Amino acid sequence: MTYILIGILIIGGIAFLYANQKNKGTKQKSKFKAEQKADSMPEKKFFASDSLSFSEKLNKTKELYPFKKWREAFFEYEMEQYTEENCNAAKIIFDNLIDKLIALGENGNEKMKIAIFEKAVLSLNELENKVEGLIETGEREDLCELIDQITIGSGLKPSDYADGEGIADLWREW
């Protein structure tokens, strides 16, 4: 009888892990979650000083780049997807995003700013498709937070997009 119970617990545990792994990449949205995130959006968290210029705000978001941390995971945990080449590819996407927003300017058209974000997120989708496992749960959180802060730096509010989820959620597949 004891062996049967242990077997049932093991099988149940395996089934639970399988079900959670299967749902890992699925976006689960609920009205409550969207409202909760919108209420807690860090609209001014990173930019404590309003004395920063538009370009200074956007360039300051580079301090939030997670790519060095990802690169350390390559060495510490032997996570092969975080090669220098792959991390640099992600960094270049964000450098281009910031450079294009700066070139557009603080008073640039909102639709044009959104188009710049769309290109960056679609480029991240392509990179993730090329390098499977590059953007997992922790990395997704890093990138969404970074994109939210860049959104704020560009003069937009993340809570205004994708039912409060942030602008990246309009196009992201990761």
Output the keywords.
single chain; 61% helix; 174 residues; mainly alpha; 7 helices; elongated
Provide a short characterization of the protein structure.
This protein is mainly alpha-helical. The chain has 7 helices and no strands.
Please give the structural blueprint:
Blueprint: H1 2-23, H2 31-39, H3 54-60, H4 67-76, H5 84-104, H6 110-130, H7 137-153
Helix pairs in contact: 4-5, 5-6
Report on the structure:
61% of the residues lie in helices and 0% in strands. It has helices at 2-23, 31-39, 54-60, 67-76, 84-104, 110-130, 137-153. Helix 5 (84-104) packs antiparallel against helix 6 (110-130).
Number of helices, counting only DSSP H or I runs of 4 residues or more: 7
- Report how far apart the termini are: 45 Å
| Structural class designation | mainly alpha
Average pLDDT, all residues: 83
> Using DSSP, what is the number of strands?
0
Task: Report the C-alpha radius of gyration, rounded.
Answer: 19 Å
- Bin the helical content: 55-70%
